[in-house]
Amino acid sequence: MIRIENLTVQFGAVKPLDDLNVELDAKICGLIGPNGAGKTTLLNVLSGFITPKAGRVDVDGTDLLSLSPVRRVDLGLRRSFQTEQVVEDLSVYDNVLALLDHLGVARAEARRQVSKALHFVGLDREAHRMGAELNLYQRRMLEIARGLVGAPRLLLFDEPGAGMTESEGETLRETLLAIPDEFGPQILLIDHDVELILATCSKTLVLDFGQFLTYGPTADVLAEDIVKRAYLGVDV
Amino acid sequence: MTPPKISDALIILPGRYRTLWEIPVVMLILTLIAAFTANAYWISTLTSALAIALAARGIGVLYGLLGLVSLCQFALIGVGGWTMLRLGHGTGLPFELNVLLAGVVAAAVGVVWGAPALKLKGLYLALVTLMLAGAYQVVISATGFPDGGQGWLGRADAIQRLMLERPVVAQNSTRYLIYCAAWATLGFMAAEWLRLAKPGRAWAMIRKDDRAAMSAGVNLLVYKIIAFAFAGFLAGVGGALLAGSVGQLDGRAFAASESLSLFALSVVAGVYNWYGALIAGLLLRAVPSLLTDFEINGYAAIVFYGTALLHAIITAPRGIAGQISGLITRIKALLGRKTPPRQATRQEDS
Ligand SMILES: Nc1ncnc2c1ncn2[C@@H]1O[C@H](COP(=O)(O)OP(=O)(O)OP(=O)(O)O)[C@@H](O)[C@H]1O
Ligand SMILES: [Mg+2]
After folding, report:
1. Which of A134, A214, B205, B221 has the fewest CB atoms within 10 Å, i.e. is most exposed?
2. What stretches in chain B show pLDDT beneath 70?
3. Distance from CA of A81 to the nearest CA of B (A)
4. What is the Cα–Cα distance from B106 to B210, expressed in whole angstroms?
């Protein structure tokens, strides 16, 4: 569970997050909002790349903001990026192993976890290939696999479905849905694909220009007028 | 719809370090060819090329693996050389121990000089490190290198200059070439091992993106320090071997422009393969010798380096070594024994 209190982020005159208060309790939680709403900014605060001007963030009882980015990884925080960050000159296997390197996992256990993660996202047959050889879909899946090793507690995914075909998106959906049961973490999922959010996230948070718009069961949230107006650009 | 199938099968890949043996084999062959064919002049040229190749491998680690531009690597050769001469004249320690200590001192200096890299990148880091090389140039041309004299600087007067003794096992210059090749082989192997192991993975993450590295749990500070220390160590060992080759060093030979040339030639030669460093050493030492052979002004070398650098940046970003590597891959494919096979992922149910 992520508890956010009075969170404000300010860059000069811009406030990408303005006094945000919310408790994200869904196992798979959606995060939507128009471009520039502050979604990525919130992820950057959670992973420690942005120090907020004010506020508190609590993950499963741990005060997150006092920890360094690396320490947060130790505690099970994982993330992907809006622009994928697969390392081209590492093998697929090593791209995942690189994360376990710093968690003090024994070699045999590391092999087991990397294997399981790669099987899970369907990249086991590509394990020996270089990151550079992967297509976009495979890169996105590899980023997810990276998040599954080393006892993850909170996964932050920033538009993992961007640029995927319909059938790829379907596999992504199935994969995301299966993660909590198989690996245990809570997921915070940003995506512009409302279908994906609706299919995977039991609850969803909507931001608009750094402001909290609403939070609740995804279907209800999507039906709200303010969301339709702000996010879907529909006149109601 | 069925949920994804989860398998417990372990993924087994070909051994991570299976290509390490190539380094001693190639080095042995090249060294034997050189030892049996080169004349005295070329033996000494090749010896200093090997020493410089070690430092070039350090650039390969910093730039090729981490993406950090460091323009003070030749100055670190000087630091290693100074330490070697100081210890060699001032203590009775064995040659090999002094080489290692020269490496350690240069590693420490390399970490201090690399400190700006914790905040700076790209052009700014390049400028700062170039200024450090310039500062070193000023200091070393004033103090000179130790040559058996008294005092902390170890300077003798011009008449009583002493030469550094070579190691017992490598008194003549051919043997000393082989001796340096052995050190270079170890240095190249250590670099390759680091590249393939945990530090190499962390460096690759850092080169990709600082934030991506941090979100993979990589401690940027620690892994940048390891890289600067290792690169400095290689330069220091190279400097020590250089000092042993001639027996003394000339303070005027350590201008900041040498660091610049060494970096440029490392890129030309290729920073992504271990033998790129070897080629870089050859380019820096053999090209001026060749030009002199043809009675062309030594400054023409600068023009040559500049042109070669432009060529590398525009058409061959992986350098000469990258082109050789591509050629080898194509030959292997032609011979039909391409390793590893495309289906290298063997699965063993457990
Ligand atoms: N480092 C920064 N410095 C200044 N402004 C920033 C910075 N990062 C984000 N912003 C601004 O904060 C606002 C929110 O950006 P953010 O990237 O969080 O939006 P987003 O919801 O992820 O949008 P998108 O859907 O386009 O990815 C934008 O106006 C952006 O320009
Ligand atoms: Mg975004």
Report:
1. B221
2. 1-6, 298, 337-350
3. 8
4. 26
